[in-house]
């Protein structure tokens, strides 16, 4: 019997505009990873006018962040699609609560935190 292959679970964190997506695109060119962006998921839901998309629009119109429970539920549900792939999360988690929820479900192997001066 061969050794089982462990899937790589990785995260890029950083402030808005710090270059997370740009770096993620460069990384996935060289490694067999699926990029998973929380912003892309939110924009997709807003375009499709889903319940979460409508809620997202409401929060954003008020200048508020998406609540942790809503964001976590959305991302963990979407990640189920990637169970057989190595993945790179981009923009999630943003808070300790989100990180703890992710940690309960997946073992994350690598976290990159982009610390870009203002």
UniProtKB/TrEMBL annotation:
GO biological process, one term: nucleobase-containing compound metabolic process
One Pfam family, short name: ADK
GO molecular function: ATP binding; nucleobase-containing compound kinase activity
Domain of life, per lineage: Eukaryota
Keyword terms, alphabetized: Kinase, Nucleotide-binding, Transferase
Coiled coil location: none
Record-stated family: Belongs to the adenylate kinase family.
The protein, known as: Nucleoside-diphosphate kinase
